Amino acid sequence: MSEFKDKIPAAGGKIEFLYHPEHGLSTQISGFGFMAMYLVAVSMDGTRLLGTVPVAGIGQTVVYPQPSVVTYIQSDEQGMWGRNCPACEKYFRTNHVMEVTCCPYCAAWAPSLAFISKDQRTYITAYYDAFARAYIGKTNTSLDVSAITDEKAAWHYSEEKQQFHFTCDIKDCNTKTDILGERGYCPRCGRTNARKLFTETIDKMLSQWQEAKNNISDRNERRSVWEDLTVKSLSEFEALAKHLRRKLLLFPMTSKRRKQLEGLNFQKPLIANASLEEWFDISVREWAGNGISPKRLVSETELPFIKIMIQKRHILIHNGGIVDQQYLDLSGDSSVRLDERISVRSNEAKRFIENVRVMAANLLGQCGIWIRGKVTMISEDALCYNRGTLVEFKLNLGGGAKTCRGLVLNTAVLFGRGARQLWILDMDDATPAQKDQWTNKKHIVHEEDIICELPSVVIGAETLLRDNPISYPVQDGKKGMRDTPAITLTVAVPSP
Ligand SMILES: [Zn+2]
Ligand SMILES: [Zn+2]
């Protein structure tokens, strides 16, 4: 874990705000060297982030919302930026910072603005401060990035080095990401890197098997290889399944079901399979095929064998391979007696690994396809254009859906999907109790529950928007509701 603690020094540079009595303020950036940067437009009054502006080289022309203060976010020396997921709050680094981002850990999608790391927020604040001092004081100011030290913590902005680096191998994506742990979803296209990792690991196991078969003659030594491969292959499956479960957990579900899903034991894939089939129509045993790849199945005749191997693996890990009563009860293995040492034959190890590979491929195939159809991309523009609009929407209550009207406050994430935070103004056919409970309150609804935009102007909208500044509300079944302010700045200047 020591690598995780290492700080990657941000490349140096200098940002100057130059005041000219006739032309106003101009920004000058120098000395950044090879690394990349992107821009975040902050509203003139410093209260909200308006949008991200594509990564650009020095001297290139970029288009961004006007008027705004544009802050230059430099990458670390590897060309990546730190990110904090707005849903799970975990940290990662990537070179994908535009449009929407998929969290490599929890697979939730949100606008890239919502992923701006804590360090970057601090940096943006310092940047805006320097701008505001120049703007108000009508003077030149500068931000010396290369002279940043720990003593000036507010200006310090180097990002933490993460544990595992991967490049997405999907054509035309190639996004680079650093995460803690090995398995992650690509921040740009949302595909998992776990398929590649799993295939490589299983291939390695099978060549290890072949090598042992050809070259090792000592009986005990051979036996320990077969046992080792049996144990490890299922461990790989378990790690993969836990990673794919992150996507399943994005579905709305009751807390009871969530607990059951979180408690699912993938060391016993056939038992877990029964629940996955019942809850999600996902089968570890079977995959229907998709026109490109044919149907795949772990046949009925393999099931007793898999069951015995899973129990063998269990006592290899927990009982030194000695048969206990539980083994006899659960495995259905009639070839051994109590207190005997089990053995794994070479062909059994291979057959088991191959079954594990099919089960993993089935799981990957179904989660992959199924999720791609489900992802709702959130338009980042909606953050600035849709705020303050009056909309009609459906509110799903226990007794049925109610039609309501409300003011859009923010773009939000609700159970991993695109949503809007609304201020509910009124509700059709509401009982006094419902009116009390729902109106004049903030609430998050999925995008598809918004029926239409209404052209009327809401009286008092200005006050409502001022009282509810731009933020990133996220609601999931795990942590409940979180609402992170877009950015907090210490200096406010009048809009021009
Ligand atoms: Zn996350
Ligand atoms: Zn990708």
Q: How many domains would you count in the coordinates?
A: 3
Radius of gyration (Å) = 28 Å
Number of strands: 23
Q: How would the global form be characterised?
A: flat
Description of the molecule:
- It is built from 12 helices and 23 strands.
- By secondary structure, the protein is α+β, with helices and mostly antiparallel strands.
- It has 3 domains: 7-179, no CATH class; 215-374, no CATH class; 390-485, no CATH class.
- Strands 17, 18, 19, 20, 21, 22 and 23 form a 7-stranded mixed sheet that branches. Strands 7-8-14-13 form a 4-stranded antiparallel sheet.
- It starts with a helix and ends in an 11-residue tail after the last strand.
- Mean pLDDT is 81; it is low at 1-5, 147-158, 369-385 and 487-496.
- It has helices at 2-5, 118-137, 194-215, 219-248, 255-262, 269-280, 303-318, 325-331, 346-372, 382-385, 432-438, 461-467; strands at 7-8, 14-20, 24-30, 37-42, 49-53, 69-74, 81-84, 91-94, 100-102, 109-111, 141-144, 159-160, 164-167, 176-179, 286-287, 296-297, 390-397, 400-414, 417-427, 442-446, 450-454, 471-476, 480-485.
- Bound molecules: zinc ion (2 copies).
